[in-house]
Amino acid sequence: MNENIKKILNKKNNSKLVCLTAYSKNIASILDKYCDIILVGDSLGSVLYNYKSTKKVTLDTMINHSKSVRLGVKKSLMVVDMPYNTYRNPKEALKNAKLVMKQTKCDAIKLEGGKKIVSIVKRLVKNKIPVLGHLGILPQTDKKFTFKGKKSFERNRILKEAQQLEEAGIFSIVLECVEIELSKVITKKLSIPTIGIGSSVNCDGQVLVIDDLIGLTESKFRFVKKYINIKKIIDGAVKKYKSEVLMKKFPKTKHSFKT
Ligand code: KIV
């Protein structure tokens, strides 16, 4: 088993897992020092390309961004999201996951879904492809993005699917917008770590989209905490640059070449 995956499993009941998304090398290299997992999420569809849904994200786009991220990740576990319609059955999933692993040199892939993907997970794991699961809101297929676990049938289904996925061999699972008490129960019942996004402190770890955390997006999701307004900082720097160019204060001789 990949040493980084062993480390992730060992954190269960010991220490929280720190996870963030990255879509390129420069950001990934900053996050790498602090993260256990860096996820190349298909959220890049909305964050970078303004797509209304992640359905439009292609395998090529994921591979290209992941190659860039790989250059910045030295110690964290690097996970790549398999986009919509690239894992409709075990054969298709294996072919595409192998391609992603080979081209991007990532450590694992992430799949959204419950019982529908159990046979797919089994096939991938059998072929030594580590899989991170994803339950709760499933952005690739859900029509409504409301939190999960309001009704008891839904709570039972999500818990059962989490257990089925664990049995199928996933090494960890993202829980997206899962109700507080339900994430507590799932986290307690599973022996693999749960990673929450909008699913409370009850999870074994947390993940956020880095662009939301640093204030590059206008995200209004309840679960997002903006730690800095990086847009404002960039704005200030570019404004100063513009003014210095117009006033001929930049470049100075030290920025130029002379024989
Ligand atoms: O696509 C993504 O970025 C994700 C995380 C938010 C978990 O799936």
| Total DSSP E strands | 8
Global morphology = globular
Name of the CATH homologous superfamily: Phosphoenolpyruvate-binding domains
Distance between the termini: 58 Å
| Each distinct ligand | 3-methyl-2-oxobutanoic acid
Rg computed from alpha carbons, rounded to a whole number of angstroms: 20 Å
Biggest sheet: strands side by side, in what order? 1-2-3-4-5-6-7-8
- Give the biggest sheet: 8 strands, parallel, barrel
The number of helical elements comes to 10
CATH class: Alpha Beta
Q: Can you give the helix content as a percent range?
A: 40-55%
The tally of structural domains comes to 1
- Sequence stretches where pLDDT stays below 50 over 5 or more residues: none
Task: Give the helices and strands, then pairings.
Layout lengths: L2 H8 L6 E5 L3 H7 L5 E4 L3 H6 L9 H14 L4 E5 L8 H15 L3 E3 L7 H9 L4 E6 L15 H17 L3 E5 L3 H10 L4 E4 L7 E4 L1 H4 L16 H17 L13
Parallel strand pairs: 1-2, 1-8, 2-3, 3-4, 4-5, 5-6, 6-7, 7-8
Helix pairs in contact: 2-4, 4-5, 5-6, 7-8
Bound molecules: 3-methyl-2-oxobutanoic acid.
The site of 3-methyl-2-oxobutanoic acid has 10 residues, from loops.
List keywords for this structure.
259 residues, alpha/beta, TIM Barrel, eight-stranded parallel beta barrel, 41% helix, binds 3-methyl-2-oxobutanoic acid
How would you portray this structure in words?
The protein has 259 residues and is α/β, with parallel strands linked by helices. It has a single domain, classed as TIM Barrel (Alpha-Beta Barrel). 41% of the residues lie in helices and 14% in strands. It has ten helices and eight strands. The protein has an eight-stranded parallel beta barrel with strand order 1-2-3-4-5-6-7-8, surrounded by six helices. Helix 7 (152-168) links the parallel strand 5 (131-136) and strand 6. The radius of gyration is 20 Å and the shape is globular. 3-methyl-2-oxobutanoic acid (KIV) binds at residues 21, 39, 41-43, 81, 174, 197, 207, 209.
